[in-house]
Amino acid sequence: MRLRLYATTAKLAWQDALEYRLDTLVFFAIAALGVLSAYFLWGEVFAERAALLGYTRGEMVTYYIMVGYVMNTSYAGNPISHDIRTGALSSALAMPASYLWLTYVEALGRRLFRLLLGLPVVIALFMLFSDGVFVPTDPRGYVALLAAAFGALNILFLIDSIVLSFEFWVLFAGNSFWVVEMIIYLLSGYMIPLVFLPNWLQAIAAVLPFKYIANFPVDAFMGRLEWSEVLLGLLVQGIWTLLLVGLLTFIWRRGLRRFESYGG
Amino acid sequence: MMASIRKNIPVIVQTLRIQLMSIMEDRIFFVSVVLGSVSSILLNVVFFQSIYGHVDTLAGWTLAEAYILLGTYHLIENIAWMTYLRGLNRVSVWVRHGEFDGYLLLPLNLKAHLSYRFANITMSIPPLITSVLLLSYGVSKAEGDLHVPMFLLLLLCGLAINFSIRVIVAAIGITNPIESPFFLTSQMMQLGQYPIQIYRGIVRQILTFVVPVGVMVSVPARALFGKATVTEILIAVAVAVVFYTFSDWLFKFQLSRYESSHG
Predict the structure, then answer these.
(1) CB of B70 within 8 A of CB of B151?
(2) Which of B:58-97 have CB within 8 Å of A?
(3) Which of A262, B4, B85, B194 has its CA 20 to 30 A from that of A217?
(4) The pTM is what?
(5) 8 Å CB contact of B46 and A197
């Protein structure tokens, strides 16, 4: 019965997202502006060279298109902070299902919808930059992208939820996510492929989960990793997911002990 | 607009005081927002340093000159955040939620009021200082003479362009509410944080004359270290004047077309 409840929640989230399909499409189109600057900027960098740190110009354009697609799909709002602050969590806790699981499946429904709706924009970008873009031909890359994107979505959701759960102790904890977001942009490879960062930053990125949000899924898609490395990366994503689930559960239980709600 | 501001100085001062009290109510919120905005500047520095680790120049810009460009971009954006940005971004939201009518009843010039009503001076000071430090660092490393008066004039033009673009988006939102005006304008502005010379063909023309974010930042930065041509300077001034005039007209025109959905 709980499975049916979760499935219905995901379906409702999907339908809710469907209502705002035009807004989502416009969102992706606006986000595509970032690819425009990347196209020209890296065109300048590659003006007098065929490749740099293992990337060609075409691969770099593909990298930014796909990393933008993965990241903009994975970010889709999280109500935890709002529910704690307003007391809406009280009624949610009375439901015959885990609040965190319900939030997760709701997020999954919205993110899967964004994954689908962002696809036309991605295809349009590949067509727009067709003279200077790299299109992977190995079908395993597309399978790896789907699997790794799912792992990325889970990791980002968990990090988001952990930060927002601090609303139990600190009002408007969600605002501190801005700082976390900057760290994610840097260490996930969203801003620039990790190989371009200074060695000390690369070493930090290697031991944190952020690179599995953007850099890993896109490198897997582009065929820059051996299949054994892809499988290992997926395993590491799974391990990080479990670790973050454990951390979230610990923080959540501690937070619930001090949660108080007022009003009718 | 200036006459309206002078007349309403007591209102402005009181509004800013209330804003400050509201912001400082939650100190952790204040610290996290400040940290976020400062770290976004540092992130861009890391980005440029990562690229310049492999190239000597980018479209003719050295790293020091790129720091000046970046400092100029963040200086303009942080002045916008400090003053008019939040007010103008709310127009679409108010229209969608039916709250815009109340603002139309105020005995004030609406555009001027929005320019200071949600001013955020306190939280903008740390990133503003960071922008100036970045600019100063770039200046210290750049070669050649500095042309500060011309830089200040063109910085003013850049601010006028930034303000005008946001007014245009707000004006459009009066009759066609935009879902995320901040996201739209921030994505457009980010195109200007790179040297305009990297853009080619029709895109460069668009970023000079249609959505002039390239002119907004690159020309003042180039003027500071003396590389801006007379043509570039004249274009920047002309674009600033034209856009400011057009945005003012468009805002008034859209207000005249506004139809409230509430009876």
Answers:
(1) no
(2) 58-59
(3) B194
(4) 0.87
(5) yes
pLDDT at position B263:
43
Cβ-defined contact of B203 to A36 (cutoff 8 Å): yes
pLDDT in tens, A222-258: 999 999 999 999 999 999 999 999 999 999 999 988 8
Asked if residue B67 lies in contact with residue B137, where contact means CB atoms within 8 angstroms, the answer is yes
CB A191 within 8 A of CB A185: yes
Are A175 and B33 in contact (CB < 8 Å)?
yes
Helix (DSSP H) and strand (DSSP E) numbers for chain A: 13, 2
Look at chain A and count its residues. 264
pLDDT of B57-91, one tens digit each?
Answer: 999 999 999 999 999 999 999 999 889 998 898 88
Beta carbons of A44 and B59 less than 8 Å apart: yes
Residue with tokens 């990297």: B198
Q: Residue A30: phi, psi to the nearest 5?
A: -65, -40
Which of B37, B41, B43 is most worth mutating to test chain A (most A CB atoms within 10 A of its CB)?
B43
CA distance B118 to chain A (A): 18
Please give the ipTM for the structure prediction: 0.85
Give the pLDDT confidence of A84-109 residue by residue, as tens digits: 888 888 888 888 888 998 899 888 88
